Amino acid sequence: MATTSLLSPAATAAAAASVTHQSLHISSKLPFPNLPFKTTAITNRRSTKLHVSSPTNQPAAAATSDTPSKPSSKNPKQETIFFDGGAHYGDLVANLLLGFTLLWLPLTLAAVSRAFFLRYRFTNLRVTVISGLTGQDRSDFSYKVIKDVQVVPRFIGEWGDVIITLKDGTKVDLRSVPRFREIAKYCLSMADKPVVLNETEPKGF
């Protein structure tokens, strides 16, 4: 009958110490005894990816909705000319024909002066009267200061005078104006007045 030898605990510890001593003796004979060796531990880690997206019910343009928009620049009101001209040519012709008489000569000189040195301008913003040799005398007033407009036909109604009364009581007498009725109605309409002409009876030249 075979017998199995059992080692005592003291014998087992002695054997383990002998093996450890032999391993240390072998490692000391290696060419690189002082080379450090790093032991890397490989760990398997599970990575989780998060996907963040903006809500689809809000458009991207909403981010700039709080930014005030720049006010659009408005162009100033452009001034348009309704009438720009001098005295009616009929006034000059009629007074030249009657200028041969000494009594009518002052009126003829006044007609020549109106024909060459007087100019009327009616725009959508103002009334302008330009006079003088070089146009240095100029008067401007707005339609807002107009109180009343009257017309006085001359000759057979081909031309006439337009008398504009301002709110301060000043009267502006525009002599020998062509298309005087049309211009007077335009002034009343621009002044927000009833377009009813106060016309007197026709007078001479």
TrEMBL record:
Keywords: Membrane, Transmembrane, Transmembrane helix. Signal peptide: none annotated. Residues 47-75 have a biased composition (Polar residues). The keyword NADP does not apply. Residues 47-77 are annotated as: Disordered. The keyword Transmembrane applies. It comes from the Eukaryota. It holds the Pfam family bPH_2. InterPro entries: YdbS-like_PH. Residues 117-187 form the YdbS-like PH domain. The chain crosses the membrane at residues 92-117. This is Aldo/keto reductase. It comes from Corchorus olitorius.
